[in-house]
Amino acid sequence: MTCKDGKADNVANEALPRPTYLPFYPMNPGDGPHSYVQNSSYQRGVVDIAKPIIEDEIARKLDIKNLSSTTPNCFWVADFGCSTGHNSFPAMQIVTQAIYQKHASSGLITPKVPELFVVFNDVITNDFNTLFSTLPPYRNYNAIGVPGDFHGRLLPESSLHFAYSSWALQWLTEVPKAVAESGSPAWNKGEILYTRDRVEVCAAYLNQYAKDLEAFMEARAVEMVSGGLMALLVPAVPAFWNPETEYTIPSDLNLLGSCLMDMAKKGKFSEAKVDSFNLPFYFTTPEQLKAILESSHSFALERLEILNNPGKYTLPSVNARAAFFRAVLEGLLTDHFGSDIIDELFTLYMEKLAASPVFLNPDKDKSIVILAVLKRRSD
């Protein structure tokens, strides 16, 4: 549901400040039937749509001459929230190839093109083994893994030239505290995510999202060189859509929440167990995201495009849609409810999907992806 808008080597040994956050849960590891590798076509679809825009922005706005003067022998790119690489590798190929083309057309008189290094980042529990064991054998960059929470510092000061993140910034560092407090006006009783009719819950989620996105931006501002570019692919929802005849990813998640309540009523676990479980996600609107990004003193918003994610057509059945959400949510659900309920939960979820003419039609999925391109201002 949509919520309404709310009001470097020289530092290698320094302690990097990081926010306090709840444990993060990685996507399902490996390459089995419930893995993220096998069930992330929804997220993959937007990469091809974003390709010409990213290439255009690099060609027109990446200042190779200035950036090359900072580290003349190497050029650093980072993917924040890379998961197991299945969707990251095509994106990194697009970015690095565009950088090489920009360098070739820049007129720089240098012995050779600087070496490209790609930093693959995700939470410390991410399946980096699968990522590095499946790296493309023929690639135009050197690969480095940096585990850690991207809401805090990860890289040396003024070392990063191009930053990228796709389908990751919807994750919050924590569920808003007021949402889980029974005495709070924002208590989210009986739900696992915000809904349109709970204004206080929406506001709490939006405030947490703004805080976390600002922390991400502040960390990148320290790490990026002046003139560096950042491309963010952010899952989102339109400001207005009809919940009676259309749906978005939050609708799907709330449908899953109703399955948990059904299981609680059958005695599988207590309703209080559901009341104490809330998903650490927020799906912004374009207006909300633009306001947050434009408030940055370190980055200039160069471009903001709303993309209609074609990945929704890659989930042709209720089984495929359930597998998509299971690959993302299984760790979270298992930690709170135990592993014994997972199969039954997603069977019930598929039954509810099959009974709804709305959820069976991908044309009714109004979820969007926002591509934001930002440039690091000069200090």
UniProtKB/TrEMBL annotation:
List UniProt keywords, sorted A-Z.
Magnesium, Metal-binding, Methyltransferase, Transferase
* Coiled-coil positions: none
Any single GO BP term: methylation
* UniProt xrefs under SUPFAM superfamilies: S-adenosyl-L-methionine-dependent methyltransferases
The record, for InterPro entries, names:
MeTrfase_7, MeTrfase_capping, SAM-dependent_MTases_sf
A GO molecular function assigned to this protein is: methyltransferase activity
Homology family: Belongs to the methyltransferase superfamily. Type-7 methyltransferase family.
Q: Which PANTHER family match?
A: S-ADENOSYL-L-METHIONINE:CARBOXYL METHYLTRANSFERASE FAMILY PROTEIN
Name of protein: Probable S-adenosylmethionine-dependent methyltransferase At5g37990
Gene of this entry: LOC105160283
